[in-house]
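Extended Data, record FXYD domain-containing ion transport regulator
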Amino acid sequence: MATTETMFPDQSDFDYDYETLRTTGVTLAVIMFVAGILIALSKKIGKCVKSSSKSNSNGTQIPKTEVPPPAV
């Protein structure tokens, strides 16, 4: 029967590659930051495009209807 020492060798000499960890972390942070900015801007741009494209074929604007706020 195997003892715990032979099943799990000593990992006290394990060393992290901090340069790779730092580079990967910064890269992921930049990707997530840029993705967040693009998502935020796409929602703003999408609202502008949708509101300006609500015109019928003869060029007149379709009137917007206002929805009353819900009663509390």
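Summary. The first helix runs from residue 4 to 7.
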